[in-house]
Specification:
With 350 residues, the protein is of the alpha+beta class. Helix content is 35%, strand content 20%. The chain has 2 domains: 6-100; 109-262 and 306-347, Inositol polyphosphate kinase (D-amino Acid Aminotransferase, Chain A, domain 1). The strands form 3 sheets. A 5-stranded antiparallel beta sheet has the order 1-2-3-5-4, covered by helices on one side. Strands 8-7-6-10-11 form a 5-stranded antiparallel beta sheet. A two-stranded antiparallel ribbon has the order 9-12. Bound molecules: adenosine-5'-diphosphate and manganese (II) ion (MN).
């Protein structure tokens, strides 16, 4: 067993149920999980057929048993976990999964949770729930497009604080308004604010300057196309799962990160040099780690990626061998690709 100081609620949680926690340093996320989600993450860890999907999901570190009010006895499911704690007195415990916190490497994470799929209930749902979920899908963008904007946060450049758009927004809009929603998540910041000595107020109070936003959007689009490719080869049903998109909203950090991760020369020799440099950096960090005063692994001093795109929330995901891919989720991924193409077109200068 391992001591994990669990001290805070996940700050930037843009969707889902309350109760997602992070470790003290914010690098790991602890989320209450149903047996089905545990099962999915164990399969993901072991099954070679899921190798390609693994890089598009948060790293799974293990499970944790927290003392709670939920009565359950799924103890055997957690055996073999990397991190485990079973209460000695055998009190009621519920299982949590420990995942990489995807927003940790960012200075100012803009975060969007897009719920995927047209079917929002699984086999275990009661007839009442099936009826309710079918109605919700029909009344929202889900049934028609395979997506619903669950919620998002976007940093304001003036206040320096994140602004949250709650799930009521994504639930209320029509399919033809999804583009506006995507534009709200990928606003173009005014270049006037780019120079620190400018006193001019920016035209848009949020968003990256176009020269940063364009390569980020373009690469996010490419990754989602890859996710679609991988997902199309799997016989899964992902009910109520999401595509989580996070990108850096801090102008300087985004610029540095793009330089480091996206603009690296793609020639082999250069790449090797970069890898070598990265490795040296890591070694340096590792050495400095022994020094307690070191801040090198703090996200404030380490340049993370300009964005991440991952599939999350496998609470109702199951394997359906022989039944083909999840067409509703694939429709959703196609919708996202179409929306990103439209946004790229909208903001690309003639
Ligand atoms: P729920 O079953 O409550 O919907 P989710 O897995 O969707 O649970 O998580 C809820 C929210 O927590 C997400 O919308 C997202 O904002 C945040 N979240 C979930 N997993 C991660 C992760 N690995 N890294 C960062 N944020 C996450
Ligand atoms: Mn969710």
């Amino acid at each position: 067993s391992m001591d994990i100081p669990v001290t805070q609620a996940l700050g930037p949680q843009v969707g889902g149920h309350a109760g997602v926690l992070t470790t003290e340093d914010g690098s790991l996320l602890i989320k209450p999980a149903l047996p089905q989600e545990l099962e999915f993450y164990y399969a993901l860890r072991q099954d070679p057929a899921l190798d390609d999907l693994r890089s598009f999901t948060p790293t799974f570190l293990g499970t944790l048993k927290l003392e709670g009010k939920v009565e359950s006895s799924d103890a055997d499911l957690t055996s073999g976990a990397g991190i485990e704690h079973v209460d000695a007195e055998g009190k009621d415990m519920f299982s949590s999964i420990v995942l990489e916190n995807l927003s940790y490497p960012f200075l100012k994470p803009n975060i969007l949770d897009i719920k995927l799929g047209t079917v929002l209930y699984d086999d275990s749902a009661s007839p009442e729930k099936v009826a309710r979920m079918e109605k919700t899908a029909k009344e929202t963008t889900s049934l028609e497009t395979g997506v619903r904007l669950t919620g998002f946060q976007v940093y304001d450049n003036i206040t320096g604080l994140p602004v949250n758009t709650p799930k009521s927004y994504g639930k209320s809009i029509k399919a033809h308004e999804l583009g506006e929603g995507i534009a709200k998540f990928f606003p173009v910041g005014s270049p006037a604010a780019a120079s620190s000595d400018s006193t001019e107020a920016p035209a848009s109070s949020s968003g990256l300057p176009l020269e940063s936003l364009l390569p980020i959007l373009q690469t996010i689009r490419e990754e989602i196309a890859e996710i679609k490719q991988v997902f199309s080869s799997l016989e899964l049903r992902m009910v109520g799962g999401s595509l989580l998109i996070i990108y850096e909203a801090d102008w300087k950090r985004a610029e540095d990160s793009i330089e480091k991760y996206l603009l690296g020369d793609s020639e082999d020799e250069e790449e090797k040099d970069n890898d070598k440099a990265d490795k040296e950096d890591e070694e340096e960090v590792a050495e400095d780690d022994e020094d307690e005063d070191s801040e090198d692994t703090d996200p404030a001093t380490t340049i993370g990626p300009p964005f991440v795109v991952k599939l999350i929330d496998f609470a109702h995901t199951k394997f359906v061998p022989g039944q083909g891919p999840d067409e509703g989720v694939i429709l959703g991924l196609d919708t996202v690709l179409r929306l990103l193409d439209a946004r790229l077109k909208e903001i690309t200068p003639p």
